[in-house]
Amino acid sequence: MLVHLHVKNLALIEEAEVEFGPGLNILTGETGAGKSILLGSMQLILGGKTSRNMIRENADYALVELLFQVENPKVLKKLEALEITPEEGQILLSRKIMDGRSISKINGETCTVGQMKAAAACLLDIHGQHEHQSLLYRDKQLEILDSYGRERVFPQKVLVEEAYRQYRKNLEELNSLDIDEEQKNREMAFLEFEITEIENAALTPGEDEELERQYKKLSNARRIMEILQTVHTITGYENGAGDMTGTALREMTKVTQYDEELESLSQTLNEADSLLNDFHRELSSYLDDLVFDEETFYQVERRLDLINNLKAKYGQEISGILSYRDKQIEKLEKLRKYEEYFQAAKEKVQRAEKKLEEASYELSKIRQEYKEQLEQKVIEGLKDLNFLDVDFAIRFDRRKNYTPHGFDDVEYEISTNPGETRKPLGQIVSGGELSRIMLALKAILADRDEVETLIFDEIDTGISGRTAQKVSEKMAVIGNHHQVLCITHLPQIAAMSDTHFEIEKHVKGSETTTQIHPLNEEDSVRELARLLGGAEITAAVLENAKEMKELAQVHKNTRLK
Asked: Could you tell me the residue range of the domain that residue 253 belongs to?
């Protein structure tokens, strides 16, 4: 569960630290006090977009930190799959927002926004005040059904997605072959030109490297000859180093008989003389063979130009050019045997479509098995939320085309009054009713997903009276199995709190700040009185608030145990 929230320099919040408890955590406050800012801070951890405007005036950065205590084995397993290991059972998610960028961290280690979002999704679920509108879209309705049956649905969806990818690949290949005779002839002519051009070149792997070496030598032949002749003269035996070394060796032999130590020096000098003699002989041979042949140079240059031209068109290396030729030959062969290849591609599409159809059919079958369970649970949940004569069903239709999620197109239908036929949600329900339906679904999914912390932002929109009481009872039931954070303006819901927080806005001079603090029993009753009576809190209103709080606690103690 979420045990600690730390927010710094975010919008109107200078700095706030909140310790949340188990069960139902209620947050109330005046309109404009900053309740949405608090929710927005948590949305940032879930991967929400950031901007410079979020940072408090005159501050360099904004910081949001959420500390979770994780004990649920299923949640720990999900985190393990993400390579996240709690430290002493705790996970710290933080996001620091600066001008133009943000830094996300998990347990102090920098991570991507995507990794942060994936981790947060295992730990909490946020239902914003406008999220229930998404329930009107069929894709969202299908997503909810799939989440309900995730144990069997998700593995089958993976098979469907794989089959769909293969089907699309084969279909694209077939479409690429679907050309008219004129286009086919044009492509064949072009392929034949490219293949002929490469084959006429008669390329040999490594040929270009040898040609480059020859070109380098031939283009610098004159300079090579001039310098080597100079070296030949310097090291030669006509007043050169060879002559002088020979003279030195002869002089050395005259004195070696007088001292044995001189023998090794004489031997060294003899070796030097031999090496110099060998060098001079090999250099002379090289100079004799060094001939600049203009025709050879021209041939090498032309060959290099040809190869480089082919490289520019078909590949950076000779091996790449030859590989390109082989691919073009394959394409040409396909076009020459067009009918044969087209039929083969068509059969591949048919096989892939059959596999996709079978996988989609199995997925649809699984979904329909869970459909009846979900329908019954939704009806039960809606009755708990003051839908007394509700009838709810999920209608299945088949899409015209396949999708990565199969061929199912579902639509939620409901009747809220006796004798009325079921109709799509968008045609029959009000905003308040839609909000309650989403609450019922969230409660159902939370139990199956094992998400420990649920956050509701003004789930009570558009409801009052007896319905508000029913919603409060439902929230209390959810809070008995999960940690719930709920932003509300209804006293019926606030009275059910296990922990009550007040969000206040303070103005001091030209500076405005938002603060959040827990309420004791007496302060909680006073806040309930404000919600009940508005600006003027009379003794009667206070008494009413106290009674509401007591009755709520009695309900929790008797119905939820």
From this structure: 185-336
